[in-house]
C-alpha cells in the first residue's frame, strides 16, 4: 500500500533494521520482567500479538519472548509457521494465508474462484490444527457501491460457509480505515460489516474489529463494542495517531476500552498490532499488554 503505516511498507522498514537487532533468547526472556518471572496477568483479556509488527525478530526468538511474557498466542501466522508456535505452546489466534492480498477481496466476483479455492483448502487445515479464526478482506471498491459489494461478498462467502461450519472455523473480515491507511477499502465502517454478518446469518462469519482503524474512520469505540459485540470475534490494537505504542502519546485510552470488551463476556483474543518505535520493541510489547490487562 502507498501509505507509511501499511503492513507492506512496515515490514520493509522493520526488516531493514534486522541486522542491528542482536537479542538472544535469554535477553528476550529477561525483557519480560525485571525478576525474570513470567508476568501474572489478570485473565480477563486473552492477550495476543501480530507477528508482522515484530517481523525483524526471528520467529523462534519471538516465540520465546512471547512465551516469557506469559502471552498465550500470536496473530497472523500461516500453516508453515504453526509448528514453531506449537513448539512453544503458543496458539495461532488469527490464521492467515488464504487471502489474495488486502485490496482484491470478496466484493469483486472476478476473485471468487481463486478465493473459494484458497479458503476451501485452508479451512480444513485451520480446523485440523485446532485453531478457530481465519482472516479475510472485503477488498477495495474500485468504483463499486456498498450495496453491490455486500451482495457480491454474500454470493462468494456463502460458497465456503458450510465448510467453515463443518470444521468449526470462523471467517473474520477485518475492518480497515479508508481515510489514512487503506484508501478505497470497502469494509471501512462497522455498520457495513455488521450488515454483512446479518445477511450471511452464520455464527461462523464475524468481524475482526480493529480499534485503531475504527477510531480513525468513525470513533465511538466503546459504544460500538457494547452495542455490537456479538458480531466481533477478535480485536486489534494500535495507537492513534501513527499506529505506534498505545501509551500516553496517543489519543485512545485502552484500559477503558479493554474493560468494555471484558464486560461483554468476550472470550476471544485481543492482539497488539502497533508498530513499535521505541528502541526496546519487546519492552513496548510488555507495556502494551500491561496497559490492556484490566
Task: Please name the defining characteristics of this protein.
single chain, 294 residues, alpha/beta, six-stranded parallel β-sheet, 12 helices, 40% helix, 13% strand, globular, disordered N terminus
In short:
This protein is α/β, with parallel strands linked by helices and about 290 residues long. It has helices spanning about 5-15, 25-30, 60-70, 80-85, 110-130, 145-155, 160-165, 190-200, 210-215, 220-230, 255-265, 280-290, and strands spanning about 45-50, 75, 90-95, 135, 170-175, 205-210, 230-235, 270.
Beta-strand percentage range: 5-15%
Distance between the termini: 34 Å
Order of helices and strands: HHEHEHEHEHHEHEHHEHEH
CATH-defined superfamily: Divalent-metal-dependent TIM barrel enzymes
Helix content: 25-40%
Count of helical regions: 12
Number of strands: 8
What is the CATH class? Alpha Beta
Q: Quick check: average pLDDT?
A: 91
Under the CATH scheme, the architecture is Alpha-Beta Barrel
| Widest sheet, order of strands | 1-8-7-6-5-4
Give start-end ranges of low-pLDDT stretches: 1-26, 28-34
User: What is the radius of gyration computed over CA atoms, rounded to a whole number of angstroms?
Assistant: 18 Å
Query: What number of structural domains do the residues give?
Result: 1
Biggest pleated-sheet summary: 6 strands, parallel
